[in-house]
Every structure is written in C-alpha cells, then in structure tokens.
Amino acid sequence: MTKQLNIGLIGAGRIGRLHGEHLAQRLPEANLLAVSDIFVEAAQRAAVDFGIPAAYQDHRRILDDPAIEAVVICSSTDTHARMIIESAEAGKHIFCEKPIHLDLAEIDRALGAVKEAGVKLQVGFNRRFDPNFKRAQEVVASGQIGEPHLLRITSRDPEPPPIAYIEVSGGIFLDMTIHDFDMARFLIGDEVEEIYATGGVMVDPAIGEAGDIDTALITLRYRNGVIGSIDNSRKAVYGYDQRVEVFGSEGVVIVGNDKPNTAVVSDSTGVHGALPLFFFVERYTESYLAEMRAFIAAVQEDRTPAVTGLDGRIPVVMGYAAKKSFDERRPVQLSEIED
Amino acid sequence: MTKQLNIGLIGAGRIGRLHGEHLAQRLPEANLLAVSDIFVEAAQRAAVDFGIPAAYQDHRRILDDPAIEAVVICSSTDTHARMIIESAEAGKHIFCEKPIHLDLAEIDRALGAVKEAGVKLQVGFNRRFDPNFKRAQEVVASGQIGEPHLLRITSRDPEPPPIAYIEVSGGIFLDMTIHDFDMARFLIGDEVEEIYATGGVMVDPAIGEAGDIDTALITLRYRNGVIGSIDNSRKAVYGYDQRVEVFGSEGVVIVGNDKPNTAVVSDSTGVHGALPLFFFVERYTESYLAEMRAFIAAVQEDRTPAVTGLDGRIPVVMGYAAKKSFDERRPVQLSEIED
Amino acid sequence: MTKQLNIGLIGAGRIGRLHGEHLAQRLPEANLLAVSDIFVEAAQRAAVDFGIPAAYQDHRRILDDPAIEAVVICSSTDTHARMIIESAEAGKHIFCEKPIHLDLAEIDRALGAVKEAGVKLQVGFNRRFDPNFKRAQEVVASGQIGEPHLLRITSRDPEPPPIAYIEVSGGIFLDMTIHDFDMARFLIGDEVEEIYATGGVMVDPAIGEAGDIDTALITLRYRNGVIGSIDNSRKAVYGYDQRVEVFGSEGVVIVGNDKPNTAVVSDSTGVHGALPLFFFVERYTESYLAEMRAFIAAVQEDRTPAVTGLDGRIPVVMGYAAKKSFDERRPVQLSEIED
Amino acid sequence: MTKQLNIGLIGAGRIGRLHGEHLAQRLPEANLLAVSDIFVEAAQRAAVDFGIPAAYQDHRRILDDPAIEAVVICSSTDTHARMIIESAEAGKHIFCEKPIHLDLAEIDRALGAVKEAGVKLQVGFNRRFDPNFKRAQEVVASGQIGEPHLLRITSRDPEPPPIAYIEVSGGIFLDMTIHDFDMARFLIGDEVEEIYATGGVMVDPAIGEAGDIDTALITLRYRNGVIGSIDNSRKAVYGYDQRVEVFGSEGVVIVGNDKPNTAVVSDSTGVHGALPLFFFVERYTESYLAEMRAFIAAVQEDRTPAVTGLDGRIPVVMGYAAKKSFDERRPVQLSEIED
To answer: Hey, where are the domains in chain A?
Structure first.
C-alpha cells in the first residue's frame, strides 16, 4: 500500500462531516489528522464521532502543522477563496468544495495562488464520479453514440432549502444549476458559448420574495454546435431527480435515478416501484468517496486532479450568464461575462 | 349499430392509403364510397386494394355526390385550404390532414368557410390519440401531478425525408415541430406566449444547403407560467423517438416509446432490448384509427371535433414564431406573428 | 394479391365472434362466406355485425357448400373432433380451436380423418404468434443464448371462469396449463418426457368443491435434459400475467407483459405504471390475427401449418400426465399416459 | 454512542477478510481486537491491511482474551460447529458463517452448547439483509399482496467454483441452494414440508464426474399450502442472477438484480443496459454490513438475533431432503430426514 496521505479538514458542517467520516473510516489511503471549525464544538463533535486526533477552532493550526500534506476545505462558501490562498501559501494540496467563490476576481486570485505555490487543487464537483454519469461520459467519450448533437439534463431537488439560505445563495443558477453546468461540460467535453435561461416562481412565493426563482429551464449552445437543455426545480415531491441524456449521430445514452431497492409490487391499482434515493447524501455517497480517492491519488501520483481550478471557475461564469439571460430575457454569450 | 357515415377520400398518397385502408376495412362505422387523386392510377390502385367502389381523378366528383356526407382530405399540403373551402361549400363534414396551410390568411379563409357552412372540421393531429400521450394528458388534466411546472418533449425521426421534400416543407418548425407544438398545447391545456428556438445542421449538410436545419431545441413559455422544452432531430439511428414528460407540483408523468416486443436478452456483453417501433406508421397506427373513430362519432353525434380548426391554426403560428426566433436569435412573442 | 380463401365459420360464441370479425374485416386474404351456430341467433347476430353473407344453424350447410374451401371450428370443445372428421370428409381445410378433444382416441380418429382426406389442419395455439413469445422462440432457435438449460413460464389469469365452466373443463391442467404445455414445446423445440405437478385450492373453495385446483406448479423434464417450470393461478388481481424465460449456456431471454400504455407517474408515494392488458382478448389480439394469416397462407401456398394436429395432441397427453402426477404425488412419464 | 463491541475474528480467508474490513473500517460500533487463522500469514496480512491490533495462528488466543466479547467465525465449514462449541464455552457471543455443519447431530451439539452457555448466536444468512429481498419480505409480511400463494426464486452464479471445492462442498443443494432455502423460509414466514428436486449436469461434465449436478429446479410445498420453486445454475454468463417473486391473493412483489449503473444506450442494433453486479461480494456488500450491524445490536441490546441457530439448521435439513428427492426421483417430506 502507498503511504497514507496526511489530511486536515477545514469545516465540520454537513458536507465537512460527510468528508470527515469518509476520510477517517472509509478511505484507508487517507490519514485524517485534524479538523477545524470556527464553531469549535462542531470540530470536537466530529473528532469524537470519527476518531480524528485533533480538533481546532483556528484552521491556521492545520496549516501550520508540517505533518499535514493536504487540506479538505468545507468551510462556508464565502471563505473558500481565502482558505485556498492560505492553504496554497502553506504549501498544502487542496480539495475545495464548490463553488470556489461567487466573485470571479476572487476565484482568479485563488487560482493564481495555487499556481504560484505549485500545489494541487481539486474542486468538489462530485457528480462527475457518480457511477451513472461517469458511465454516460465514458459512452460519449468512447464515440459509441457518434458525434453528440443534443444534451438533456434534468436536475430537481426533493425540497427547497430554507429561505435564509436562498437569500445568500447567489440565486438558483449559481447555487443549484452550477452543478448541472459542470455536468454539461463534463458530458460533452466542450465549452458552452451561449446561454438562454427562463423560469419562474412555482414552488414557493417566499422564494420569489427573496429575489430568486425556483423553477428554471436553461438552453446551452456549445462551441462545437451541440445544443443542450437543463431543467431545474427546487421541489420534486417524488425525490431527488437526477437524469441526463446525450443524443448523437450513432445513438443515445440515457441515465436514470438510483433507487433504494428493485422491488416492484403489482396490485389491482397498478404496478408500483420505489422512489429515487431521497437527496444528494443518499444518491451521491459513492461519488463523494470516489472524488476523494481521486484527489488523494492525484496528489500521491503527482497527476493533474480530475476537476481543476478552471473547472471550478467556468460554471460560475455560466451561472452569471444564465442570470443575465434571465434578467434581460435574451440569449447571453459567455464572453459578455468576462468583459 | 348507428348508421354508417358515407365518406369520400381525397388523395391516395401514403397517408391517404393509410386512412383508406382503415376506413374500408377497420372502421365498421364508416362506409368509404369513393377515392380521388390527381394521379388517377393512385386512386384506382387504392380502390382495388381496399375495395372502394369508385375511383376518380377529380375530387369534384366526390363533392358532387349527394350520398357522401364527409370527406377525408389527404391531398398535398398546398391544396388543403382550397379543398376545405370547396368541401365546406358542398356541405360535407371535413377531416383534413395537417397542416391546413402554411399561410395564415389561407387558413383563416378556410376556417371562415367551415364556419359559414356549419360543417364539422377535424384536423389530423393524430398523436393526441396515441394511448401513451392520451394517458399523459389524462394524468395532467386529472390533477394527479398537481399544477404543471415543466414540460419536456423529445421528438426524433429515424431518418430525414428526401431533400426535395425538405425544400418545400416550410422548414423543420412547420413540418416536424408542428406536431410537438400541438402536443405541447394538448398536454398542458394552455396557450404558449413566447418561443425561443435554437438548432443547427448536424445530420446532413444537404439539409443546410436546402436552407433548413435538422436538429432543434425549442423553449416554450406559457401564459400560465409553465415552461417547456422540445428537442427535435431528423435522424435517430435507433428509431422513432417520441417521449414526453410533464412535471408538476405533486409529481411527474413520463411516457416512453412503444416497442415491437418485450423480449430482453442478457448475454456476456450486456442486457439487450428491442428498438422502438420504426416510424409513425408503426408507432401511431392505433392513433390514426382512434382519430378517425372520433371524427365519425363527432359527426354522428353532432359534437365539436376533438381537434378543431383553431387547433390546426395555432401550431402554424408557433412554427412561424420558432422560425423568427431562430432567425433573429431571440425569444419571440406569438403576438408578433399575428401582427 | 393472391386469390382470397373462401371460409366458413362454425360456432359464433366468444372466440368464434373474434375470429369472425378478423376474417370479415381485418384479413383481406380471407373471404368469410358463412357462419353457423346451433344457436342460430348467434350466427345471425355475427352475420349482421360483421357483414357475413350467410348464417345457418346447421354446420352441414357450410360443409356442403362447394365454394367454401376452409372451415374455422369454434364450436364447443366436445364437438371439435367430430367437426374435424366431418370437415375433412367434406374436403375442407381446417382451423380448429384447441383442444381437439380431451379423449386421446377421439383425437387420433380426427387426425386419422385429416390424414386420409389430405386436408390441412391447424390447431389454435395462438400464443405461438404473440410477438413476445415469438421473439423468445426466435432467440432460442437462433442459438443466441446457447444450449437451453432452464425454462420458466408464468401464466396467470385475471379471474377464474364460472364454476359451471370449471366443472366441465377437464381440470386446470387440460384447460389452462394446456396452453403452457404448448408454449413449453414451442420455446425449447423438444419433447417433454416427465412431469411433476403440485398445487392447491387457494383462490376459491368452490373450485375445490368442483373437484379442481386453482393454483399449480408444474415441473417438466425434457428428453434433451432441459428442465422447466410452469406456474398457474386462476386469479391474478393485477391482470393477465403471461411471462416466459429461457436460460441457456450463453445467456437468457425474458419476455414480459404488454401494457396499454407506457405512462409512468411518480408522486410522493412511489413510481406507478399501468397494469398488464386485462385478458387474452386484449393481450393476444395480434396473435389471433397472425395465426389466421398463417393458416390461410399455409393453405394458399400448400405448406404444413405452423401448429399441426400432433401439436394439438401432445399437450393433451401432458395434461393427463400432470393430472396423474398431482393425483399420485409423484413424477409421471408421458409414456405412462400412452399405454 | 453505545460502547463498542469488542470482537475477535476467527478465519481470514475470503469471507473472513470481508467481515474483517467491515468490522475494522466501516462499523464504528465494532472494535476488532484480534484475528486468527491456522495459516498465520493470512491472519497477519489481514491485521496489516485493516489495522487489527493482534494476529494469531491459534483461535484459542482469541477465546482466552477476556476483553473480547464476541467472535465472528469464518473458518472452514467443517470447523464451524466445533468453533461454536468452544466459543460458547468461553462465554463469547457468536456470529457464524453458514452452514453450521453438514451433520445434523453436530449442529445440534453446537446449538446445545450455545443454549447452555446463554450466549447469542447469529448465522450468516446475509441475503436476508439485502435491500431488495428485505423489501420483498416486508411487502409480504405487511399483507400488501394478501395471502401468499406462489414463490419463485432464481439464483444463478456467474461461474462455478473449482472442482476441488465442488468435491467437498456437500453438493449443490447444501452448498448453493441452501441460501435459497433460507430465503424461501424468510420470504413466506412458514416452514416447508415437502421438497421435489430435479436437475442435471449442463454446465461442465467435470462437475458430474465429481458426483454433483450444476443445474437444478426445486419444488417446495409449505405447511400453509404455499408452493414454491427455486432454480439454480452454477453458470450464468451474464453475471450473478438473484431474483425472487412472491405472488398472493392481492398482488405480486418481484425483485430484480442490482446493476452497477443505470445507463442505457440505444444504437442501431438495440437498447443496451449494464449487466447485473458480478457476484456476491458486489451484490451483497450492503447485506454483509447490515447483518453485522444487526448482530452487534442484538448483543448490545440483548435481543434474539435476526437469524437464529434454528434458522441455520433447517436449511441443512432441506438440503438433505432435496438430495434425497433428486436421488430417489420422488417428492420427499422433511420429516423423513429427521428420522
């Protein structure tokens, strides 16, 4: 076995605990040495639950520890860019949850620091590691369906987040669609040039009052001519709905939802199967493990991570393009955002 | 049994023969007395094949026959409006293949003649009678999925028509998407206000040279706020791909393709099932029968036909809006077309 | 077009009317000249409904008509053998509903008469013509799944017949399983040597009081070593359940039920699809048409029918073996029945 | 968190390593203190790989350790009963892989020792914890499908074990069908009274030369009248095939295979999906975790384990009944085995 990678975890909220449990208990290639959280009780709780040797309030304690080779950044979104810069300056390899930041200049500063320090950075677009989407990407990349022509992504949450969260989320395109923007790039392997976004408030008027929408339909036009469509809803009563379809000159690949079991009951009223796995924790468990395995391997084998800093930046640009398109009710070039 | 309806068939091309066979052999409520075609051999051939008593070159012979109560118009598209007017003036009830005409003024003249004559007109949007789409519409209308939020239509042909046909077709939006525009209205039960269309030439450069595109993605915004998406391709190598999905506040209904058999073979390379039924004749056989049954019943029972003249007109308006949107690369209001 | 085959229909009960409608309205290669039924009103009703020129009480009127080339026998089961003999002696080709008779000596007499007269006889095992089972048979015969090892047939009715019918039916093995015995021979293309049958009264005690069982599980051992299993129930509340599976050295083929539509609704309680088509009339419509087409073609082209007299006889032997096995609670050789 | 249960692992072969990894890394409620194997290198290898503090050749070292509260027995089958007796005498709670022993008298001695010592014993019928089968059992137990009438189990391995293994396996009924016998009891919740087994050598003549068969079909008759059927093959080229179906008065529940992904590719040759997960390690991972969680909880909460010693004994009786039935070509009562 290769030597374990010594890791520090920054942030012990929901996603931090998820990564913490995986690093401590399910990834033998990782050695989780410490966890920090500005709410020190959260760090201590995680340390006890997952058997992590050290718990701090100040993430600097992690960055200052020479034994720690890499950090996993799960702090609040607005701190990601700063944490990346500090970690890079401390010479640590970095796994950072998405998005890097909602301000492109901040993202660029962070990516600059990473480049300068020569450390590795992987951004947490975990869905790329989902066995279903991964298989779809492989089918497309293999040429099995020929040249891709059309892309369809359905991405619906089982329930909206609290309004307080909505208010600081940056809006549906930067908070929710951002994952689908990454998926759109991943599946087609090319860049989007133009975005047209429409949508409305259909789930909860309070979301509208918070200045956001809850239902959206986004059209993508790629440089290579592919056209794509993403639909989002904050509330699918039947559970987390995560499907994609790529149609090409030689065929189509479609991936559907995962279910907790395959049982099908037929009775006098119909044929009934299980609902999809409830939400991202259930659906994407394997992908969270796989992305972390990939990050550790990239560090250990000195390879470019599977999801780079640029992969973290572009979906933010796409989010702004979608927002501008929705506001101005017209298709928007991604190049307009960069200006 | 109610008295049979005496019918004359105008046009004995592919779709004319299909209706002719149904009227002569599979619809006991119909009495097909005559068939006409400007290529009189086609009329004669149909008469022999399906046992139709009379075959004419001139459709006037049908209109002049007082025994004939209703006509089924399957002549070339450019003659539909004129045939409707003549048939209405002759006091015949009318079933007319879509589209009525590609010129809105002509359509309005035809609908005016129908109104004046007080005859019934049903337009041949047969897909409404397909058991799958019909069931989807029933589910939506019943409220089972709550308020509709999103609509997705996938509509792909197995192979493009000849270039000669493409050249006179009016373009993909008026020739192919027109069926999906009807489906979009049928499923949601409300009117579309705005259309945004994008697409390209991906299947065959010759289609582009003929001034058309072969792949399209159309976004619909309804008066009631629903947003919808239609994707089209002139060539799906795996066969006719006709699926719809309506997502609402209380659930989702999805309908898929029909297949020639349910056999699934698993071998060492994978799990393999049959391709969808090849094209519209195979997939929509039942719907062609059902629409004709509905037309005959509407005449016999003096009811409004299931697909009215207005239902024939609106998808043409939508086709023009899609064309204008594609040409001008911006969302277009349907009201812009009417001006 | 080949000359139409002139046909007379003997028996105008449920299955007679079904064949009558097909012959009169959906099979242009057939010319249905007359119908007979000992209840002459039934014959007259069918004649009016389907436009059959002549209706008789006495089937001899059909046999005596020199214009009639073939008969379709749908009279009551106990008269089948006699009708076959009379029809053969009259020189008519014969399509006969199954079973030929429940007495093997009677069957042999009928088959002898057919042979002597040199006419064609097809027995109405229509399921062989079902697109699903036909495809399964083709897959097996093509060698795609290698050497067959195991067969599974599930065959369950949506509801039991009236007790009065049960009492004269010959019992579940000769009335219901007989179709599955034919399917078992058809799919494997080899003969069964030994049968073990078990079962019980689970659906309705009245069926037990009538001396029959309503639920059965039958094990088959073929000459070539294949082993098979058939399960039957007189009542599946979810509808007609007709599935088969053949497992072999290189794979497995599984066919499932047909459904009225492909609509799937997901709501907060689960994922819901349509029930199977209700019963044999709905499920096997196409197969009834196809078997009749095959019979007419066999006569017109002077070929051996797809389901021969022997194919009609062997399932009866199997039915007796199953009955004996159930009664004696031991596996029974088919050769024991012949002695 | 409840106090962790201190566990010793006896046997570090394939299944021992699987449990060892789970106990050491994925079950925080377990504290795996030691591993033993008569091949001490295997124990040492496992200790290094999974971070187990102690590795011994002699399992007595584990039984003598007062800190260890429970043992997990994964040694060779012929030693299970002895290990159970020694462990019970040492006052350890016991999880033991199936089968307990192939000699009923040995099983009874082991169960007697367990009873006398008052320790808990859970037998490793892990499939009961598979989410699919568990759901099927819940559906049946809930009454959702009414009274059960028929049971069908399909259980096929992707490839046969080595001939050397076959020779000492006790034969297909005691080695392979034994799992299905447990499943048959679990799903119906009642006892089998009579078994009829048939089968043959279809996969590999060497299996026949070793005195065993490789393909089997077993009929079960339960005390409560339910009839069931199990089919087995040692080689399904398409992978591990593990399906069950329970049919009852109010409906049917069917569970199918799990697949590595939901991707479906349609191209010009057909519609293609992934094969089932390859074999038991892939398919039943979750069930191995779940059964161990259940065992630990049963000990911690002083409850009867989910799979008792009797549940370990009865499938062995059923295996002998199947063997006797196959040898004597007749249905065999389970009571015949006990005499």
So the answer is: 5-119, 128-279+315-338
Closest by Cβ to B272, choosing from D237, D239, D272: D272
Distance from CA of B182 to the nearest CA of D (A): 27
Write the DSSP string, C149-194.
EEEEEEEE-SSPPPHHHHHHTT-HHHHTHHHHHHHHHHHHTS-EEE
Per-residue pLDDT at B2: 67
CATH 3.30.360.10 fits C128-284+315-338, yes or no: yes
- Residue among D266, D274, D275 whose CB faces B275 most closely: D266
CB pairs under 8 A between A and C: 40
Chain B residues whose CB is inside 8 A of the A241 CB are 252
Domain A5-119, CATH homologous superfamily name and number = NAD(P)-binding Rossmann-like Domain (3.40.50.720)
pLDDT digits (tens, 9 = 90+) for D144-196: 999 999 999 999 999 999 999 999 899 999 999 999 999 999 999 999 999 99
Between CA D215 and CA D203 the distance in angstroms is: 7
Residue among C38, C23, C37, C29 at smallest CA distance from C3: C29
| Cβ-based neighbour number of residue D105 at 10 Å | 9
**Nearest Cα to Cα of residue D310 among D114, D126, D118, D133:** D114
C149 pLDDT above the threshold of 80 = yes
Over residues C218-228, the pLDDT tens digits come to 999 999 999 99
C-alpha to C-alpha distance for C236 and C242, rounded to whole angstroms: 11
DSSP symbol at C275: P
Which numeric CATH code is attached to A128-279+315-338? 3.30.360.10
Tokens found for residue C12: 């105008």
Q: How much is the pLDDT for C2?
A: 67
Which residue in C has a C-alpha nearest to residue D200's C-alpha? C225
Amino acid at B131: P
Quote the mean pLDDT of chain C.
96
Q: Does B275 touch chain D (CB under 8 A)?
A: yes
Interchain pair A202, B149: CB under 8 A: yes
The whole-angstrom distance between residue D9's C-alpha and the CA centroid of its chain comes to 18
ipTM: 0.95
Q: How confident is the model at residue C170 (pLDDT cuts 50, 70, 90)?
A: very high
Rg of chain A, C-alpha, whole Å: 20
DSSP secondary structure, D244-301, as one string: EEEEETTEEEEE----S---EEEETTEEEEPPPPSSHHHHTHHHHHHHHHHHHHHHHT
Predicted TM-score (pTM) of the model is: 0.95
